[in-house]
Amino acid sequence: MERGFIEQVTDENAVRKALEAPLACYIGFDPTARSLHIGSLVPIMALIHLQRHGHTSIALVGGGTALIGDPSGKTEMRQILTREKIELNATCMRRQFARYLSFEDKKAMMINNADWLTKLNYISFLRDIGRHFSVNKMLAAESYKMRLEKGLNFIEFNYMLLQAYDFLYLFQNHNCVMQMGGNDQWGNMLAGVDLIRRVEGKVAHSMTFPLLTTATGQKMGKTEKGAVWLDRELTSPYEYYQYWINTGDIDVGKFLALFTFLPMEEIHQVKSLSDKELNMAKAILAFEATKITHGEDAALAAWNASAVAFGVKLIDTSLMPSSTIPRGQLSQDASAIPFIKKSWNELAKGIPAYEIMHECGLCSSKSEARRLIAQGGGYVNENPIFAFDELITTEHLDRSGQIKLRKGKKKYMIIKVE
């Protein structure tokens, strides 16, 4: 909630209680193009946060519902795509999700609702599912009101039933108890919650995200050139980086909270920044957002290219503070560089991340280190540390015998093995 993801929720206390234990949650994505765009980043980031906290994230590709078209938030009917085009787009989206989520051991799943919606028997569906829906309640939903003014056809009218059935199917087959999505989906999501209650007699939950606009009122991810895509072939990493670095001053803090994993205690400081310091915060936003989507190498290349183009002086990584872990006995002449009093053998066995971040001086206490990692602010070699007790070992050493730890966006420590 602190990061600004939540707009509406069915029952806040019940949802907080449900999130105390691992659960499965899904978000639907329409395969109407071969790539997702920045407008899809809020739900993607929500899935990442869920996974990082031990929940199962389900990215539901709407290969079945795309055959109809979602009327939500639209003044005109969407163009109906062919099955071949939808399948191609869905395949491309699967590759994109793999960049954001880990699918090992079913920590996340990508599922296509075409797998069950295209096999439905229409008469059976009307009898078993359609009977639970009130036409009067459906017409009162915001997702239909806008379309009623210009005409809502029968194909679109079915969309709410299908989305609700998706939730029921995932509840029954994948123990999915929560759906999240854009605020324009609220009516459809409530329909799913109600359907599960009626059919299964059990409680499910829904949560919506705010529909983001920039400070100028422009829809998120829209530029003069069009949409900002997550596919590097459609929007290059450099163009992607430039989109973020051109963020309006008033949006920097909000976007850092939503689109990076930096600790909120650091993001709150943005409110007091101005001029060059605020521009640096924009550069950090651009770097972190580009790294999440395109990887660290692409983010560094975009950062360097931008610095050259605009004459910005880069930070020399050799100026980062360092700490030394001696390979053998502790050296008596450790010079002016502080070191961690751990032996090579201890590092080989593994040192919990929260301990090493405390002992090298990045965090003032082990409890602070735990909180930092839980909030997504701990990094080893620029990779997020997902668990406070994740082991830092000799396997993390680079070719020069170093391990780079980072706290938040700019506090580094180099662990050297001598």
Question: Can you characterise this structure?
Answer:
By secondary structure, the protein is of the alpha/beta class. It has three domains: 8-209, HUPs (Rossmann fold, 3-Layer(aba) Sandwich); 236-314, Tyrosyl-Transfer RNA Synthetase, CATH 1.10.240.10; 318-417, Structural Genomics Hypothetical 15.5 Kd Protein In mrcA-pckA Intergenic Region, Chain A. It has 18 helices and 15 strands. Strand 14 and strand 15 (411-417) form a beta hairpin. The two termini are 44 Å apart.
Q: Class of the largest domain in CATH?
A: Alpha Beta
Structural class estimated from helices and strands: alpha/beta
Share in helix:
40-55%
Q: What is the arithmetic mean of pLDDT? A: 83
**Total DSSP E strands:** 15
| Fourth-tier CATH superfamily name of the largest domain | HUPs
Major sheet details = 6 strands, mixed
Keyphrases for this structure?
418 residues, alpha/beta, Tyrosyl-Transfer RNA Synthetase, six-stranded mixed beta sheet, five-stranded mixed beta sheet, 42% helix
Secondary-structure map:
Elements: E1 8-9, H1 12-18, E2 24-29, H2 41-52, E3 56-61, H3 83-100, E4 108-112, H4 114-117, H5 122-128, H6 135-139, H7 142-150, H8 154-157, H9 159-174, E5 176-182, H10 186-200, E6 205-209, E7 222-223, E8 226-227, H11 237-245, H12 252-259, H13 264-267, H14 275-294, H15 296-310, E9 322-325, H16 344-349, E10 351-352, H17 353-359, H18 366-374, E11 378-380, E12 383-384, E13 391-392, E14 402-407, E15 411-417
Parallel strand pairs: 2-3, 2-5, 3-4, 5-6, 9-15
Antiparallel strand pairs: 1-6, 7-8, 10-13, 11-12, 11-14, 14-15
